Amino acid sequence: MITDLLGKHVQTAERAEDWKDAIRMAAAPLLENGSIRASYIDAMIHNVEVNGPYIVIMPDVAMPHSRVEDGALKTDISILKLKDGVAFPQDNIVHLIIALSANDNDAHMQLLSDMVDVFMDEDKMNGLLHAECVEDIRRVLA
């Protein structure tokens, strides 16, 4: 499912202004694709402000997401690799931001399951964290 959804949704950048900017950058392709409304991005940011950096799911990796009713229109995923990383609350430095949107629970669970498979694969994670360009990321996830 991951490789089917990625399409043009892989980005690399040197840095983000802050963690909020990183979430906006990661979610931009989902907004442009009509997969989410702008309110969904606001909700992802608000969730971290209220609940802390729970989206930092492992060292170097954050998975911002929100609820369907916050503006998820389609199931989609976007990956942003930041060369310099960005500090999330509680000094969690993140280099890989994976923005998710799902329009139903089954799709949400399938996306999470696919990503867990990637996270459990040490070679794939090393490949993602050391990727220098979009093609490197696509190659790792192929």
Automatic annotation (TrEMBL):
Signal peptide: none annotated. It is found in: Cytoplasm. InterPro entries: Ascorbate-PTS_EIIA_comp, PTrfase/Anion_transptr, PTS_EIIA_type-2_dom. Residues 3-142 form the PTS EIIA type-2 domain. The keyword Phosphoprotein applies. GO terms for cellular component: cytoplasm. Keywords: Cytoplasm, Kinase, Phosphoprotein, Phosphotransferase system, Sugar transport, Transferase, Transport. Pfam families: PTS_EIIA_2 (PF00359). GO terms for molecular function: kinase activity. One of its GO terms (biological process) is phosphoenolpyruvate-dependent sugar phosphotransferase system. PANTHER family: ASCORBATE-SPECIFIC PTS SYSTEM EIIA COMPONENT. The phosphoenolpyruvate-dependent sugar phosphotransferase system (sugar PTS), a major carbohydrate active transport system, catalyzes the phosphorylation of incoming sugar substrates concomitantly with their translocation across the cell membrane. The enzyme II UlaABC PTS system is involved in ascorbate transport. This is Ascorbate-specific PTS system EIIA component.
